[in-house]
Amino acid sequence: MVPEQFRALVLEEGDGKPRASFRTLPLSALPEGDVLVQVVYSSLNYKDGLAITGKGKIIRSFPCVPGIDLAGTVVESASPEFKPGDQVVLTGWGIGERHWGGYSQMARVRSQWLVPLPEGFTLEQAMAVGTAGFTAMLCVMALEEHGINRDRPVVVTGAAGGVGSVAVALLARRGYHVVASTGRPELHDYLRRLGAAEFIDRQELATPSGRPLESERWGGAVDTVGGDTLASLLRAMSYGCSVASCGLAGGSHLNTTVFPFILRGVNLLGIDSVYCPMPRRREAWRRLAEELPADLLAEMTTVRGLSEILDLAEAITDGQIRGRVVIDVNR
């Protein structure tokens, strides 16, 4: 039975930052779309934190329901691809930014955005992966397609965050020697359980050296930080190897030279999870279900209620969140 009303977090334009409130809305308030989903879980991502706190210009039109991920059950469908009862996952495509997102008990979306729940995953596990884990898998796929050296360490920056945690687990599972970069030494044991073999303080990578090249050190890198950290990685990449760049927690500017590219054949791979084409999207989800061990996913995941989201948004933008946070929209 389709509920007549639903609860959602709604952001409205405010003076300097969005105004957030929990509201009970009629189904008629939902935007257009050919599939109606009863949402069970969403997740917490850095972009969600920026949207809710107003620390980043994420929301493109107000009012808006944030939440760039959702997982739930189809209750109405005008698409031949989906029928009521199907369990589905949605990440990206501008939900929680341009379109109403997952911090809601109901969502009306376009069928072209939906991925069937991967075999072997529950809805909760799919949101434990979410955009962060999906991005991590896209990074691993890109590195292996464009240049990664098993004979040298592979470094993951922002390793204790959502993307970083999943990247550490995936790379270690595939037999790479993973070096985790973090500024939180109290999380070394956690990262070691995910598969990290060594650690490097994030400040060591974020300090500019003034040299265009360093000694060849890394066989590959997943970078969630950007800025001076990304420039440092590029200077120290081994010949023909790659950096998968997917974040800007440390800044959006890149101060580098052409030397890593023209003298060492280094590849800088941009990773976009929002508009990733559907065939590659489905392949990434298939591999996540096959390659990410359930016990490691559970190790990096906590479940919190939607009622806690305002505090969680502040925490993730302040770098205080470990791993992945699943949001139960009915709590």
CATH homologous superfamily of the largest domain - what is it?
Medium-chain alcohol dehydrogenases, catalytic domain
CATH class of the largest domain: Alpha Beta
Over all CA atoms, what is the radius of gyration?
20 Å
- Report the portion of residues in β strands: 15-25%
Integer count of domains = 2
What do we call the CATH topology of the largest domain? Quinone Oxidoreductase, Chain A, domain 1
Task: Output mean pLDDT.
Answer: 95
SSE arrangement, N to C: EEEHEEEEHEHEHEHEHEHEHHEHE
Fraction in helix: 25-40%
Structural class: alpha/beta
Low-confidence stretches: none
Gross morphology is: globular
The CATH architecture category of the largest domain equals Alpha-Beta Complex
How far is the first residue's CA from the last residue's CA? 20 Å
Number of strands: 15
DSSP helix count? 10
What is the makeup of the main sheet?
A: 7 strands, mixed
Describe the structure.
With 331 residues, this protein is of the alpha/beta class. It folds into two domains: 5-117 and 300-328, Medium-chain alcohol dehydrogenases, catalytic domain (Quinone Oxidoreductase, Chain A, domain 1), CATH 3.90.180; 130-270, NAD(P)-binding Rossmann-like Domain (Rossmann fold, 3-Layer(aba) Sandwich), CATH 3.40.50.720. The chain contains ten helices and 15 strands. It has helices at 46-53, 123-146, 162-173, 188-194, 202-206, 227-235, 259-263, 278-291, 294-299, 309-317, and strands at residues 5-12, 19-26, 35-44, 69-77, 87-91, 106-109, 115-116, 154-156, 178-182, 198-201, 220-223, 242-245, 267-270, 301-305, 324-328. The strands form three sheets. Strands 3, 4, 5, 6, 7, 14 and 15 form a seven-stranded mixed β-sheet that branches. It has a six-stranded parallel β-sheet with strand order 10-9-8-11-12-13, with helices on both faces. The two termini are 20 Å apart. The mean pLDDT is 95.
